[in-house]
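FAQ: What does the model actually see?

It sees only this:
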Amino acid sequence: MDTISSFCFAKPIGATNAPGFHAAPVIALDTALPLMHIFVHFPTIRKLMMKTPPSWLALWDKSLEGYLHLRTMLGQQIRDILADPSTLSNAPHPIIYHSLLGIKDPIDDIGSINKPLISRPISTSDLDEEAFLLVFAGSDTGGNVLSSGLIRILDNPRVHQRLKQELQEAWPSLENKPRYEDLEKLPYLRAVVKESLRMNHAVVNPMTRVVPKGGASIGGHFVPEGTTVGMSNCFVHWNETLFSPDARVFRPERWLEPEAENLDSWLVSFGKGPRSCLGINLGNCELYLAFANIFRKFDLRLDGFSATDLKWRDVYLPLHIGSDMNIFAAPSIA
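And it is asked to produce this:
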């Protein structure tokens, strides 16, 4: 959440500095996550909740106080920008409002004015919706892939050792930090990232689409125009024909085999086509940097938890259930 709030709004919320890592906004999102099914299937309830004063929500559920803080922070930023767009010149880097409002990028050497991403006039509620969408989409998705991937790596000594060895060879001195561009060239790290994305799926609930005019042929069947269709990423990622053998087994080596390039088109964690995730590059950057830093800088082992304990239920995203994921960690001596 620190990454997405810094990148999109230039206002990090300081989640990683919270005592015990119990950051109120993170807890608030975790509390709200089980409501996603209600919001998806009953949009009127979502709209009512968005119009409900945050202080009322906090009275209803104290764990939503972090939501109040986040909404207040973003709302104030939006109001300040709409009142005086020149305040964007104080941002340390381009943020989402430069593009949404078509305001000149202060770091743009060309000096041209951006074309607004939304053609109609943008209201405060429009910007509020966009901001919260980015926070929700950019937090739990990457966090889930990192946590579940971490457990699966540590639960497999062979994978763990091979990853550590590659990182130690490519990053011999901790003082000389590699760039993302260097890390994404490491074959086994790349395989680990892809397999972690495949096994977590990102979004597990079917992403609905409406069949365009004229209808379409889907899976050999004609579907008339206007029909709402969708398919879960799980059915692709766990397909034994595509990811054989053992599609439900965490095996990074599958991405290093001769036919591995053919698998890339079936990795749909970020979606595909014109409606694919806007944050795919940022998401990949986070995963490479996080996995590399964690496994290069620390010696880790599981504490009473294994990959078989990774159970989740579908609340649009995979919501992990059960005991906490506990890990012993010590600074790496190499």
